[in-house]
Amino acid sequence: MFSSTLLAVVLAISPVAFGKLFTTSPVASTTFPAGQPATVNWQDDGSAPNLQAFGPSDIGLFTGSVNQQVLLQSIATAVDVSKQNTIQWTPNANVGPDGSKYFIRFTSNGLKDPAQPNFNFPAEAFSAMFTSVLLPIAP
């Protein structure tokens, strides 16, 4: 549908960490061309739980709000974030319209959210929100 488009990514806020995993890339000036390799980087922010506790995680491109989030594209599954701190993926140009808010979400496959001990929610970490702009690629 948008096979000849460019997905330009402009991050709107600074990176946020929930599970003590801190996303270092993408940053505000990053541009991800649709159909071309892009990189997500992360590091331990030095507080508990550390990346070893966060462990194997699913990584995806999401849209939505604090209360409701929708997976648009899976980036990787079961990545041990304590043994790896970068991953390459190819953004799909069909993920959404111009102006939508997107973010990278890490979902731990084993660690539960310590802030909500009465529930069985996984620990999660998020990148900054970013806006997608679809532009035609010059011939």
TrEMBL record:
InterPro entries per UniProt: Kre9/Knh1, Kre9/Knh1-like_N
Chain segments annotated as coiled-coil in the UniProt record: none
Leader sequence segment: 1-19
Name of the protein this chain belongs to: Yeast cell wall synthesis Kre9/Knh1-like N-terminal domain-containing protein
Keywords: Signal
Entries under Pfam families matching the protein: Kre9_KNH
BP GO annotations: (1->6)-beta-D-glucan biosynthetic process; cell wall biogenesis
PANTHER family: CELL WALL SYNTHESIS PROTEIN KNH1-RELATED
Protein species of origin: Hericium alpestre
Domain Yeast cell wall synthesis Kre9/Knh1-like N-terminal: 25-118
